[in-house]
């Protein structure tokens, strides 16, 4: 039985969340018709959802343009997750140590469907070309953290996630062939770390390793940012990969005792 056929499934809540997700970098503000289209609901449903969200303080309407936008109160929901996530608490000191050791920015990402989501970061002293704030999502298939996570799954799980992904090119270096990505994941399993060079953003390179729970299942990835302006691939693999692996192992060991 699918969720929407379950008597306990609340379709109004589903629509309200769809409205909130409809606002993004492309849809910073929307009128009612645009809200309905973004959430894939009727205009009358959109009107009810927007009215409720506005009354609750999650959406506001500009007095002149009459267009709707999210309010800062939406951040409270995401913050509550981070505050309750024990993995972030456990990982923070290890990420801080990794940033100090490497001199580069370190991150923790967790899986959300076919993406990885940034949940923790320690910023290194040096400039990084790409700013991805906490809460940003990046595709699994073409990033170091995503491939590190995939490498700790079974072959069937990897194939299912990759087949559900939009394997599109972001730069001229993006690997979009399923066979190539699977071969790369096999290599990551052998080496214990993943490295991605400019497949998502030009100038951006990262080295990552998976974090595993007590059952050996991946729950997150640690990655170190290694801009191509400062690092060659060879140097990043030689100097950053061992540190990323050790950090991921330390976090894995610590969460197994919780």
Describe this structure in words.
- It contains nine helices and eight strands.
- The chain has helices spanning 11-22, 32-39, 43-56, 75-84, 86-102, 144-151, 155-163, 178-191, 233-255; strands at 59-61, 68-70, 106-112, 115-122, 137-139, 194-197, 205-212, 218-225.
- By secondary structure, it is an alpha+beta fold.
- Strand 3 (106-112) and strand 4 form a beta hairpin.
- The strands form two sheets. It has a six-stranded antiparallel sheet with strand order 5-4-3-8-7-6, with helices on both faces. A two-stranded antiparallel sheet has the order 1-2.
- GO terms for molecular function: DNA binding; DNA-binding transcription factor activity.
- One of its GO terms (biological process) is negative regulation of DNA-templated transcription.
- Residues 10-72 form the HTH iclR-type domain.
- Keywords: DNA-binding, Transcription, Transcription regulation.
């Amino acid at each position: 039985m699918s969720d929407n056929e379950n008597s306990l499934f609340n379709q109004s809540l589903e629509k309200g969340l769809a409205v909130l997700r409809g606002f993004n970098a492309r849809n910073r503000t929307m009128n009612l018709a645009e809200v309905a289209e973004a959430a894939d609901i009727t205009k009358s449903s959109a009107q009810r959802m927007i009215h409720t969200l506005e009354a609750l303080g999650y959406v506001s309407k500009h007095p002149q343009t009459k267009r709707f936008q999210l309010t800062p109160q939406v951040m409270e929901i995401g913050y509550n997750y981070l505050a309750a996530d024990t993995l972030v608490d456990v990982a923070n000191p290890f990420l801080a140590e990794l940033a100090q050791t490497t001199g580069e920015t370190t991150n923790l990402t967790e899986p959300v469907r076919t993406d990885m989501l940034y949940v923790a970061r320690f910023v290194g002293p040096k400039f990084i070309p790409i700013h991805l704030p906490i809460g940003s999502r990046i595709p699994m298939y073409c990033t170091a953290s995503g491939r590190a996570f995939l490498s700790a799954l079974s072959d069937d799980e990897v194939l299912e996630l990759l087949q559900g992904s939009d394997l599109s090119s972001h730069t001229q270096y993006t690997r979009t062939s399923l066979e190539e990505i699977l071969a790369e994941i096999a290599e990551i399993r052998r080496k214990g770390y993943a490295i991605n060079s400019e497949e998502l953003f030009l100038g951006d390179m990262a080295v990552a390793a998976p974090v595993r729970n007590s059952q050996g299942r991946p729950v997150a990835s640690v990655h170190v940012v290694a801009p191509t302006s400062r690092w060659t691939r060879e140097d990043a693999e030689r100097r950053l990969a061992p540190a990323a692996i050790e950090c991921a192992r330390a976090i894995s060991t610590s969460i197994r005792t919780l």
